[in-house]
User: What shape does this take?
Amino acid sequence: MKLQLLLHAALDQAEVQLQNVAQALQKGEAKGSDPYVGILSPALFDVEDCNIYGYVAATRVKVLAIVRDGACRQRRDEEAILRSMLRQLNLLYVDAASNPFYDGLGKARDELKHRLETICEDSELSLSTDCSEAGSESPVSLDTTEALLLFDWDDTLLPTSWIHEQGWLNEEGDLVSPADEIILNRQQQVLLQELEVKVEQTLLTAMGYGRVVIVTNAMEGWVETSCAAFLPGLRPLLDELDIVSARAFATPSGRTRTSISSRFEEGVGIDGPAEWKRRAFAEIMEAAFAEGGSRPNVLSIGDSVYEQDAIKAATKCMPNCSSKSLKLLESPDIQQLIEEHDLLFHHLDTAVAHEDQLELEVAPEMARELGAFVPA
Assistant: This one.
């Protein structure tokens, strides 16, 4: 299971590691780029079934969730509870990113402790919910902890159009120089760092709702290369996600086609980016929901109509699927992309929980102080 930071299967090992982290933080010996300022007491979020551990860094709250031995009889129930808690705890990210309350462990603990009551009340699954009850839902109910969220990369997470305007991409879309040789001025660094924080916030929040997959029409390896060049702080988080190059679906020979994707074989060409996305979405979704159970819940986020068309086609033959798409601005500048991720952070929960089909896009006239999704 991929949670931020980590879910340990061996709880005794987790306890040892947490103690080591706590000691290192308290002694100022922690290594890494984040200037740590405190450790959240395990007792702070201690509940009947689970312990929540975390520590505060200069720009974010990092969370480690652990379920006690025997607390859950099924792994699926365990993941549902953890994701529900993680989603609520990630709300603390906003506080950590914007509120200067870091003057020591006591102040940080006081600031976070008042959120516990809200977390318990708002959590989809109560933190003390018995796991046998969590697994007793109707098989057709919409589970907002097991959603599939499909993100585009270029101009959705990476400011590709802006990068091109800065002269770092050629007309073919390739870097004009190796990633480690790109030199950024101060203004560019500030903008990219601000976007990096916003994108991380979006992805962490999305991870709390289920499985997150980045699906790009770019060549394999582009996501990792461009991330290292312009959003290097996201690399550890990307390692937690699945990254799919839809170009792999351009050539059908040698690939085993499944029942869902095979419906694209007749009458539709496969040598274009629209069809690559359709095939990629279809196979990812069929694999994700092959075992049945909860009602399929899918959300696509991208800047082009390719994602909208792909999710429509991929869910056409999936009965009772709740499919949603959020279309962002095409060719945004970096400031617009930053604003869009603010918008995403505040509306992801509504989109994931929406029961019916949904197709929205960012209003082209979106102002800096007030963004809006409108019907597509």
Remarks:
- The chain has two domains: 11-134, 147-375.
- Residues 11-134 form one domain.
